[in-house]
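The following record pairs a protein chain with its ligand, iron/sulfur cluster.
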Amino acid sequence: MSLLLNDRVWVMLSDVAKRGVYPLHASRLGIFRVPIELTARSEISTVMNSLKSSGFKVDTYADRIYATYKWSENGVNPVTEKELSADLDITVEIVTGEVVDIIYQIKPIESFGDVYWIKNYRQKADANAKMIIDTVIWNSKICDKLIAYYQKTQKLSMDDAIIKIDEMTPLKRNPTVRTATAPQTLPQDQIPSNASVPTPQPTLGVASASSGSGNTSISLTGTGTSYTKVEGPIDQSFKSKRQIVGQFQGINVWGPIDPPGQLGIWGTEVCVDFDICVADGACIEACPVNVYEWLDTPGHPASDKKPFMIREKDCIFCMACENVCPPQCVKIFTK
Ligand code: SF4
Ligand code: SF4
């Protein structure tokens, strides 16, 4: 949605009202108009079911559908040093009709109580709203209609229309698979066998972890120079096959490692297989909360820098980095 937002969504102060939406004082409002008709009850029900299966809380009223995403924040009281936690949420409103308006408001943080310790609340709420919108557009009937719209108005092939919408919705979560031969919103395991779904790459043949302690401080230099680049994707079940062999600036590193040519998988919730990463920077650009920064890794066969998840704790689990990584070497473990 971030791309759509650049030219289609207006963020405005609360004195603006549209189609009966009256934002609360001090709220910010984003509106995106999708040029498709959504009026049939059966189609609206289909959209609602898609949203439920995408993991959002869904409500409806009149011609509107509400999709809510909830997340938790944890922190520490600076005075008592007691652990703090708070539950936050953001709701996106889908106004159906001859066109579809998708609207969200970011509530003032005070509406969640005395949660002064939460950092970057607006940024996180904004990113989560965009994540809902991208998921709504991609995972529901709305995408089928948008494909038809682009085919008709821009004379795009179905493949090109799918690619266009795919690129417009980089923050979508748990995306359904769409191809020209399987354009409907099918779960991955129900795609017809003749659909042109990319063949999954074999998972890495990972040896058991090298020796070492989880508290060892990892060095990026060493004698490991006889390695070649590893092909993706990341082994999704690496946590049951590898062990933590040390840390780098507080971030866990899963072995085996043999620097500088073999660096293993880094992170606990935001995980990147450094042996696959080719350092194109897509994850760094996609991350709305700046979890990553570049780390120089001279002598590595795949790339001489890697996206280091130094602010892993700031992750809002929007999945953007996982979705954009070309060699699929990112794995996000949601809380
Ligand atoms: S998107 Fe993937 S390949 Fe590109 S820098 Fe990030 S982790 Fe590396
Ligand atoms: S690290 Fe990835 S999943 Fe976490 S906030 Fe950044 S882009 Fe989203």
